[in-house]
Amino acid sequence: MKPIRVLIAKPGLDGHDRGALIIAQALRDHGMEVIYTGLRQSAVQIARAAIQEDVDVVGLSSLSGAHKSLFPKVVEALQEQGAGDIPVIGGGVIPAEDIPYLEEKGVAKIFTSGSPTDAIAVYIKQLIHKETIDAPAKIAHIGIAVENIDQTLPFYQHSLGLSLEAVEVVESEQVRVAFLKIGETKLELLEPISEASPIQSFLSKRGEGIHHIALEVDDIHHRLEQYKQQGIRLIHEEPKAGAHNSQIAFLHPKAANGVLFELCQPEGKE
Description:
Elements: E1 5-9, H1 18-29, E2 33-36, H2 43-52, E3 57-62, H3 67-80, E4 88-92, H4 99-104, E5 109-111, H5 117-128, E6 138-145, H6 149-159, E7 163-170, E8 175-182, E9 185-192, H7 198-206, E10 209-216, H8 220-230, E11 240-241, E12 247-250, E13 261-265
Parallel strand pairs: 1-2, 1-3, 3-4, 4-5, 6-9, 10-13
Antiparallel strand pairs: 6-10, 7-8, 8-9, 11-12, 12-13
Helix pairs in contact: 1-5, 2-3
């Protein structure tokens, strides 16, 4: 398999290239061939270089604050020269508020300041091999730790007016769960049934409250493998049995700034 070829460019009048050179070296360390065009390149020059060098990806870096103008111009220049199939990614000093606009203009991915260089390399590999991570289908449920389900249910049923869908015991987690449907998602009340339950540990440390957010996904095995490639910390590297015969796995809360996320693949969903 031939190496992935990446063009790294600094569009506009940006006079600093240290960050771009660091990224270029990191991509080379991942086995990619990197072409660096240098400073102060126009959108047309970048597009022509990408075509001449037959690259797979164009990576743009900007510290000047002109990214909202410059990045879309590169996308347009590639399209005008018949190379709109070359994906463009960007990074540098880019406020999060500008990301939706840039993606709407055709930039495939934006890496904000502080993004690990390894994450950029992994994304490029997944992009070229068409293995990028799709967004979860929806929030499957929100898990709420409680001391006693029977004593808690009246508030959810009578005060909030929610319907109880099912109650079951999940032996693998040593927990009794009650599901209440709300719109397209559910609330999951979690009651420990032994001292060994992770929910009992949570209650002892933090008391009752929101425990986790569960995201519905397809092909949980493949998704976990992608997360491992990205260096995402996981509690479970392989799925385990969950409620309703689903397959579940938890990401480590340190991967998401203290939020515990569960991946959930419903029964019969591949």
